[in-house]
Amino acid sequence: MNRSEIIKNYSDIVVTKFSSKMWSTFLVLGIIVYLIIAILSLDILQIHKKWSPERASLFALDTYAHKDHVTMKWSEPDDIIISFEGSRWSQYVGPYQKSDGLPERYPEWTSIGPEGETKISFKNGGFANLYDDKVTIENWPDTKETLVFRLDAQGKPYVENVDNLPKWIRVTENKIEVRPSLYERVQVYSKKVEVHRYNLGWNYFWFDFDSPLEPYGIWNAISLSFSGDRVDPNISNFSLLIQEFLNNDMWHHGQILWALLETIFMALLGTLLAALLGFPLAFFAAYNVTPFKFVRTILRRLFDTLRGIDFLIWSLIFLRAFGPGPFTGIFAIAITDTGTLGKLMSEAIENTEEKQQEGVESTGANKTLQHRFGIIPQILPIFISQTLYYLESNTRGAVIIGAMGAGGIGLQLLGAINTGTSWENVMYMSLLILGVVIFMDTMSAKVRRALIGDETLGAELQLAKMAKK
Hints:
single chain, alpha+beta, 3 domains, MetI-like fold
């Protein structure tokens, strides 16, 4: 090698290394610029100012706990309303007259004191007492003295004779809020007093507030279903149990379970239609089956179009065509997955082993039989595996499509979220959806093992195993 060739080779190496370093530098700079733009456009640096830990804690608390409201108006101190979750339809006592004594459903944590005050006890050992002209709290953590709240001459709430208030008491011009923890709250306003008392658990989950079975509880109600003594003389105890559970006005079990079945139906039928359409179309899109290039090209572009448009967009299109209902979700899922399964299966057909097809051809079989016995056995494990996977995914997707207007549990979930207060219902439906997804995953795994074989091998390994035989 002469000197000029050495110099040329060295120059090429230097240029190659310089180009590689230059592209690496541009790549790193591009990533840095992208991150800077993302941080500025999304206002990430200001997230800590928008984040409200207290509000997030209240949302989380509402998912696993319930609260009772006690309300007293200063203008009508004798009418104290105690209600579940502040609902006007779930009042323990209704308008309460102190001279009438304790109503039958008066909560055990509320009593009448020696001076005629309404006494509310909390699990932290403290008490809140509602009088005609004041509110007192006593025996609360970190407080040895009794705190008294009144209204001044201008009707503004104030704390009487206390200089150093605990940190969990906040006083503003028109409101005093007492909140030592998430489970207790006393709010004193100019016109009323509100006491919120939280308890863990989903209250009235089995039977609603006015159900004749509510005083019995779920286990006693089940025992009554085998008893001859009827709670309602017009219906058997077992029928009453089922009816009261499904028609629960607070948890809406009947509506939610029916909506869940609609969601599963949308996922199942949508995936089935996609499989029935995508599988035969995949053969026409494979080059080793269809010799006509224009047919393959049209089908491949069709698959790109169907899967390129998200199923949410398809659901909006079909929503205008069919209106609200499960058919919107079924066709949105079917159209999207037809494109996806068609593309996957056409590529799987093109990658099949030719020896099996040649072996079938050597017996004198026609093209249809060659495809039936030479190609389908090779791609069937992949087809089953992918179809079952998309069935699991579509179960989740059907929830989103339902929220867009197709119905099902997605619409129920969106309605509960929009109330801003029914977070326990949101958690309930979320757990049902999670349970269905887990069930679908478990059942699809069993179906795969039953149809494909060895559970330790995926569809791809099964295909390789068959190709070696």
